[in-house]
């Protein structure tokens, strides 16, 4: 009778050790998986009209309550949830923090569904060239807090040419007040028509 109890105790102890080892391996596998998750992946998980708004803090010191409308290779498209009918394009390097409810935080850390390789290749330059082609008026907010309103005439590999004019007016030669070459690295975020944001 004592031997039966002895073997049962050994069996229980071995099962407990295996369970503890499996839990440790699962925890380590989860840590390894999380170490490979990028900010871009987390934002991709927040994309969609069914997701609640988050608070985005950008390098120019501004805060935006917005929903994620799209994520490219190095940028995120946002739709303002603060009653302003505008879209925003924010370089990923300009995002300092994202505030969201705990449930959304956990959701964004889960593995994201596979995305199109075309979307992954859409860089900030690609989006800005599309805005130039559409002749969309934009307000470019710079890292140091200044903003420039106008129309993007062209976008290169790492910069854009901006024709300056009053916000809300179409670009015409007689309303252009100047031109600026703006480095992509100086851009905190761009505001444009919500319809123009991918």
Write up what this structure looks like.
- The protein is an alpha+beta fold.
- 33% of the residues lie in helices and 33% in strands.
- The protein folds into two domains: 1-36; 39-196, SH3 type barrels (Roll).
- It has helices spanning 2-35, 39-46, 102-108, 117-121, 124-134, and strands at residues 54-58, 63-71, 75-80, 86-91, 95-99, 137-142, 147-155, 159-164, 178-183, 187-193.
- Strands 5-1-2-3-4-10-6-7-8-9 form a ten-stranded antiparallel sheet.
- Strand 3 (75-80) and strand 4 (86-91) form a beta hairpin.
- Helix 2 (39-46) crosses helix 3.
- The model is unreliable at 194-198 (pLDDT under 50).
- It comes from Microbacterium aoyamense.
- This is Fis family transcriptional regulator.
| Residues in helices, as a percent range | 25-40%
Architecture of the largest domain, according to CATH? Roll
CATH fold-level label of the largest domain: SH3 type barrels
- Which class do the helix and strand fractions yield? alpha+beta
Report the C-alpha radius of gyration, rounded: 24 Å
Enumerate the strands of the largest sheet in spatial order, edge to edge or round the barrel: 5-1-2-3-4-10-6-7-8-9
The first-level CATH class of the largest domain is given as Mainly Beta
Number of helices: 5
Report the order of strands and helices. Answer: HHEEEEEHHHEEEEE
- Strand % is 25-35%
Largest sheet: 10 strands, antiparallel
Question: What form results from the Cα inertia axes?
Answer: elongated
Distance between the termini: 74 Å
User: What number of structural domains do the residues give?
Assistant: 2
Task: Detail the poorly predicted runs.
Answer: 194-198
Oligomeric grouping of the chains: single chain
The total beta strand count reads 10
